[in-house]
Design goal:
Layout lengths: L6 H30 L1
Subcellular location: Plastid, Chloroplast thylakoid membrane
Family: Belongs to the PsaI family.
Membrane topology: Single-pass membrane protein
Length: 37
C-alpha cells in the first residue's frame, strides 16, 4: 500500500509528464484541423 509520504514523489512526475503530453496532443490536433480545412 502506498503511504502518503511516497505518494507525491510518484504523483508529481506523473502529472509533470502527462499534462504536457495532453497539451501537445491537443495543440497538434488543433493544427491538423486548420491544415485540412
Amino acid at each position: 500500500m502506498i503511504t502518503l509520504n511516497s505518494f507525491p514523489s510518484i504523483f508529481v512526475p506523473l502529472v509533470g509528464l502527462v499534462f504536457p503530453a495532453i497539451a501537445m496532443v491537443s495543440l497538434f490536433l488543433h493544427v491538423q484541423k486548420k491544415k485540412n480545412f
